[in-house]
Design brief:
It contains 17 helices and seven strands. It is mainly alpha-helical and 442 residues long. The chain folds into three domains: 16-106, Fumarase C, Chain B, domain 1, CATH 1.10.275.10; 111-357, Up-down Bundle (Fumarase C, Chain A, domain 2), CATH 1.20.200.10; 362-433, Ribonucleotide Reductase Protein R1, domain 1. The chain has a three-stranded mixed β-sheet. A hairpin with a 2-residue loop joins strand 1 (151-156) and strand 2. Helix 13 packs across helix 14 (381-398). The radius of gyration is 31 Å and the shape is elongated. The model has no long low-confidence stretch (mean pLDDT 94).
Length: 442
Amino acid sequence: MAKKLWGGRFSKATHPLVEEFTRSIHYDKKLARYDVFGTLAHVQILKKARYLTPGEARKLTKALGGLYKAIVNGTFRADAHAEDIHTDIQNKLLAKVGDLALKLHTARSRNDQVIFATKAYAKTECAKLIADVGELKAALEQLAAKHKDFVIPGFTHLQHAQPVYLKDYLSSYAAMLSRDSAKLAAIASAVKLTMGAGALAGTPIDARHYCVKIPGLELHPVANSLDTVSDRDFVIEILGAAAIIGMHLSRLAEDLILWSTKEFGFVDIDDAFCTGSSLMPQKKNPDVLELVRGYAGRLNGNLISVLTMMKGLPLSYNRDMQLDKEPLFNSIETVSGELKVLAQLVKTLKFNKTRIEAYLEDESLYATDIVYYLVDKGVPFKTAHTIVGKLVRHAIESRIEIKSMSDAELKKYSDRFKSSEILKLFNPKVSVESKRSIRRGR
């Protein structure tokens, strides 16, 4: 049985079922490098406070450096029987430097270790996610630029609404991703790495000694030790940001799924990003996009699980908080995987211009343009709206096109109509260019 960081108080060995039930090393081993990183800082703090001699600090630093190297190069193997990764690293240090490792828990609690490692992991992974978001955003922007003059039908309620530029449609998702990046950057910036909270009440070491300088590490003194060890707001904020990203990606996936159907036929998804049917040889299924859509539910669930876990906890640390790790790890890995695969998928998209142009023949897409035509001729908007509504209904019921109507027919609805002028409005490019409130890049 692996040694624990505690135990002197107990007269009995932990029941095997309790060992198994409380063990977290199978998932918190992801924090190994961050625990070692924090322990390296703690060695310097103990040396400053004279709890370690310079020689002891050097010996521990060398041993920790060896562990860190093994973690980075992939040769580190976590002990599956250890309670958690923090215990495992302590035991590995004991094997390397003997009882000197026992000094490491001077002025240190596992509560403090856990929050440091989790925050360090979170800051690192937020930076990676921002890069992943940027890659997909760039792919969407490149696709938009490639089709900068391409007009498509826009939809509200999944009904034909008005023509829009494809670049504006794609850029709307790029705008969502910009907000996602900003959220992640703000969360990461607000996460301050601290040491010195102890279990909940602080330590005997002067706060000044916690201002250590290690490359890549900015350590802050603890402002409130109870809040430090019990704070999981940053986890919840990351889970919230991940859920929002997942929702954005799910919407993009749903658009592409719809557009790739025979009913729409707007876009072709590359074979490399689709799968087939085990029964129907003709099938080309957008499974990647469907999974992106499906994972949105899991991301929402991860957020709700941690919010629910935290809502009734008294101060300060409680073992319930161990259950924040799996949702955090899962959400970050899920979103990262989605962003990476979508960035590549988007680069392969091919739009069916002929099919889209056929959809743009639908006169209903230009009804609002006819309303503004009347408004420009002095008709109040609401009156113009009613006139065009009646005109559209007449065209549908009579099975005739508005653009084929004579002046006499049109003037039954308004004497401001001229067929030669109306005809010019049924042009997708004219329609999109008439919307001057949008500040588009050229």
